[in-house]
Amino acid sequence: MTTRRMLSALALVVGVTAFGCSDATPPTQGVYMLLDTSGTYTEELGKASKIINYLLSELTAGDSLAVARIDSGSFSEKDIMARVTFDNRPTTANEQKRGFMRQMNTFSSQVHPSRHTDITGGLIQAVDWLRETGAGTKTVLIFSDLEEDLAKGHVRDFPINVKGVRVIALNVTKLRSDNIDPREYQKRLDHWQARVEEGGGTWQVVNDLDRLTRALQI
Amino acid sequence: MSTTWMIWPGHPGPSLLIWAALGVMALYLARIPAHRAIRAGARVLTHAMRLSARSLMHAQGRLAERNRDVLLTLGEQTVENEIGRELQRVRTVVARDLAAYPELHRILSDQITRIDEDYRRATDTPPSPPSWLRSLELMKGLVAQGGGDSVVVDVLKAMEHSLEKNHREAMEAYRAQSAKRHGILTKMMPFWRKVTGTLEHVNRTVRGLEDRSAHIDEQMARYTEMRGRSQKASRMLGASQLTQFFIAGLVLVIAALGGFINFQLIALPMSEMVGGASHLGSFKTSDVAALVIIMVEIAMGLFLMESLRVTHMFPVIGVMDDRMRKRMMIVTLTILSILACVEASLAYMRDLLATDHEALTQALAGVQASQPEFRWIPSVGQMVMGFILPFALTFVAIPLESFVHASRTVLGVLAEGLLKALAFCCRLAGNVALQAGSVLVTVYDLTIFVPLRVERWIAASAESRALSGPKPSAPRP
């Protein structure tokens, strides 16, 4: 009798543990990386490759990753260089990662500097794509100096909706003008922080890429 | 801040003093009923606590009695089983060896008869008494006395030759007879050996039976002691159960570690089967699936041990007829073997996945993928472990049963200790409440020491006045 009771209790504990501790948020990750291809910033793309490789090694089955370039008009699917949602099976996911890596190598070798820098368009495109994936944690990585230079006629001075999205600016390099007046640099950062936070997102700047692991928390 | 409490508005200090004086006066006036109330409260609390302690001790006593009953019943069952097993062994020995005793006796008699016959046949027949030797000697004397009578000498010589010839023939016949007897005696040896062997076998059997009888006697003595509900028996059983509890617990911990290793072997490749992204609550489905496989293996192990009658946790399996039990044994063993094969293949898959992941990581890091030598050794090791661990986990059933049985006793003892501790706390709290009543009375008096002092002065002066009052008038003449 006691044995039976104990076995029933064990079954109940296992059941409660397995089904009771449900979490509403799907534990999948969605990462969208924006690469600035304007002017001399293309020289920084080597660092971006390392970050992409790091992301590929850390993201697992069910996670999504996309890499897009920031050019004169970034609010376009054409600017997405590679995108993938990793398969449930680890072997297939590994194959997808290899394919993604090959695509990125091709992109790095063929990239051309763009005339203008449409960061806002790229950010809107990133948020749209991340929402489509339905990922639990949405992260946009902006690999740029954050100096927006819009083409004539492009309208981007409106609030952007980045609710629930974590925006991390990476490798925000200082421009020549920043060296003359460092307040310009801070003003640029503050401007983007305000835009993201007003849009409901969270903002973070990581210039030391060694600390990226902690910042990403994948 | 409200100022309504101030008797003298704008002067909180004096107002507070007045309130304090009024309070002290009120306390002084209520002193006797207040003391009574405090003492009564303390007494009520003390009685309640003592009552609780008594009832807890009563419950502890009942629990101890129940624990003792459980322990002795368990012990009785164990000894009954042991005695039953011993009797079964004795029965087997008697049925195997001693049941054939008449046959054995007949064989022994036959062998002894044959040996006896052979012995008789081998009896030494002494040669005929050597009287003719004396005749021969006399004849030789006559020949010597006869001097030169050649006829007598020839006759005597012929007789001598004839006698010697007869003597030789008799000796040869005797030697032939002896050789024949020796041959018979040599043939007797195997029969002697057979008889000795048979007797030794009987001796061993009887000695084994004697040992078993002594063991049964010991068990019976223990059983009688248990039936007599003696303290010694319950103490011995309690110590034995505690030892069992710790040993079985230790083995279960080892088994749990084995299960964990097993889980690590199959959790990763499971994601290839059920998907790595799906979740069940906050757990990965692949992890849950791996855990379920291990649980199923343990369950199959339990059923296998039950059907082998090694453990007795499921009475339904225990009372099954032998044919059904054998079927169940075959089914559980088959499922267990299939699961072991699945695990071995999953372990191999795990190795492939790890290799693939390593190669990808190296490619992402820009390092040339290396092909280490003897890579097959860990692969084979993992496969073997994957195959063996399910069978090893089968034996968890034995310590689990011991643990469950022993935990009844151990939990009972713990509950007993807890009740004792609670009873002690209640008794302590009762005594503290009683003493706290006295302390409260003293503190109460301390707060009203001024009016009490005044009261004492008044009482003292009244007493002194009474003592120093007008002397009684002289009696009238």
Would you kindly provide a brief summary of this structure?
The complex is a heterodimer of chains A (218) and B (477). Chain A is of the alpha/beta class and 218 residues long. Helix content of chain A is 44%, strand content 18%.
Describe it for me?
- The complex is a heterodimer of chains A (218) and B (477).
- Chain A is α/β, with parallel strands linked by helices and 218 residues long.
- Chain A is built from seven helices and six strands.
- In chain A, helix 2 links the parallel strand 1 (29-36) and strand 2 (64-70).
- Chain B is built from twelve helices and two strands; from the N terminus they run ααααααββαααααα.
- In chain B, helix 2 runs antiparallel to helix 5 (150-227) and helix 4 (131-145) runs antiparallel to helix 5 (150-227).
- Chain B is elongated.
- Chains A and B meet through helix 1, helix 2 and helix 3 of A and helix 6, strand 1, helix 9 and helix 11 of B.
Order of helices and strands of chain A: HEHEEHHEEHHEH
* Poorly predicted regions of chain B: none
Rg result of chain A = 21 Å
Strand content of chain B: under 5%
Rounded mean pLDDT score of chain A:
83
Largest sheet of chain B: 2 strands, antiparallel
Q: What gap, in angstroms, lies between the N and C termini of chain B?
A: 80 Å
Helix content of chain B: over 70%
Mean of all residue-level pLDDT scores of chain B: 85
Shape of chain A: globular
* CATH class category label of chain A: Alpha Beta
Order of helices and strands of chain B, N to C? HHHHHHEEHHHHHH
Q: What is the structural class of chain B?
A: mainly alpha
* Continuous helix count of chain B: 12
Structural class of chain A: alpha/beta
Largest sheet, spatial ordering of strands of chain A: 3-2-1-4-5-6
CATH topology of chain A: Rossmann fold
